[in-house]
């Protein structure tokens, strides 16, 4: 996956904006191969949990958004209060953005009747405006390390728009184009593989590739979640949202625990 390295750093000079480039006070996860594995599982969990709230429990999209928005705000405030990176807090917010992103995408399509194409345009515009505001404020789009609170807020808003956009694109492939969940997962997986190849074999900007990968890991994880939960007649495995949610939550909990152990023993790493 997209693992920024020394030749493809992401604006390492941060001394004029955030003090030191040390990762000691960093608040976010380092972008490694494990990061992308956890991101996919978190998106699967967000998809199944969002469907559990809005469809399985019959709460509807408006109530689903209210619940997931409240959960996201609480988790984000918890994360912002931390002084250093905590895998538990960080990945809890990621799950919050994926769950809320599911509700936002579905609401744009089914409540506001924009459809997934126009919904994707709205969300892509929101992401572009967020990244533009981020760049104008800090003169970079560095995603690691992040220590200053305003910088972190831009990061999480971009993450929320990215996950919502990824949800809309995945639903577009399955609902509008009519692809099976397995085929849709193969397409998004192919796009991710292309991004990985561009990262290692071209000089394209690593920040751009990071956000492209971040967006498309969302529909990849979401279509995998749909594959597990949707009825057999729609190409799914009909496992149900609750069992799929519990499985995804269990896998992510194990990886968060391993990440926490690794983080405690890891030396400081350069910024990117």
Question: What's the structural blueprint in terms of helices and strands?
Answer:
Blueprint: H1 15-18, H2 33-56, H3 60-81, H4 87-110, H5 115-138, H6 149-176, H7 181-201, H8 206-229, H9 241-265
Helix pairs in contact: 2-3, 2-4, 2-8, 2-9, 3-4, 4-5, 4-6, 5-6, 6-8, 7-8
Largest sheet: none
What percentage of residues falls in helices of 4 or more residues? over 70%
Mean pLDDT: 82
Number of strands: 0
* N-to-C order of helices and strands: HHHHHHHHH
Q: Give the total of domains.
A: 1
Measured distance between first and last alpha carbons: 15 Å
Q: What are the low-pLDDT stretches, counting only 5+ consecutive residues below 50?
A: 4-21
What is the strand content?
under 5%
Shape: globular
Radius of gyration: 18 Å
Q: What structural category do the secondary elements indicate?
A: mainly alpha
**Number of H- or I-type helical stretches:** 9
Task: Describe the overall structure.
The protein is mainly alpha-helical. The protein has one domain (26-256). The protein is built from 9 helices and no strands.
Keywords:
single chain, 272 residues, 9 helices
Describe this structure in a few short sentences:
The chain is mostly helical and 272 residues long.
């Amino acid at each position: 996956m997209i693992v920024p390295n020394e030749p493809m750093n992401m604006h390492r000079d941060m001394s004029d904006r955030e003090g030191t480039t040390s990762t000691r006070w960093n608040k976010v996860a380092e972008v490694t191969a494990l990061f992308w594995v956890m991101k996919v599982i978190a998106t699967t969990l967000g998809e199944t949990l969002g469907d559990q709230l809005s469809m399985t429990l019959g709460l509807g999209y408006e109530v689903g958004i209210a619940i997931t928005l409240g959960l996201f705000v609480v988790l984000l405030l918890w994360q912002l209060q931390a002084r250093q990176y905590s895998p538990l807090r960080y990945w809890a917010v990621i799950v919050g953005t994926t769950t809320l992103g599911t509700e936002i995408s579905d609401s744009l399509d089914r409540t506001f009747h924009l459809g997934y194409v126009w919904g994707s345009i709205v969300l892509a515009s929101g992401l572009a405006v967020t990244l533009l505001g981020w760049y104008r404020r800090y003169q970079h789009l560095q995603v690691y390390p992040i220590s200053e609170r305003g910088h972190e807020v831009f990061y999480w808003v971009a993450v929320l728009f990215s996950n919502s956009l990824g949800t809309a694109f995945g639903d577009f492939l399955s609902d509008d184009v009519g692809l099976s969940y397995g085929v849709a997962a193969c397409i998004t997986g192919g796009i991710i593989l292309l991004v990985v190849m561009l990262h290692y074999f071209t000089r394209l900007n690593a920040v751009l590739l990071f956000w492209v990968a971040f967006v498309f890991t969302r529909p990849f994880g979401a279509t995998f979640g749909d594959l597990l939960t949707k009825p057999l007649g729609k190409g799914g495995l009909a496992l149900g949202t609750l069992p799929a949610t519990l499985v995804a939550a269990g896998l992510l909990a194990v990886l968060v625990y391993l990440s926490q152990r690794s983080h405690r023993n890891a030396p400081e790493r350069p910024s990117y």
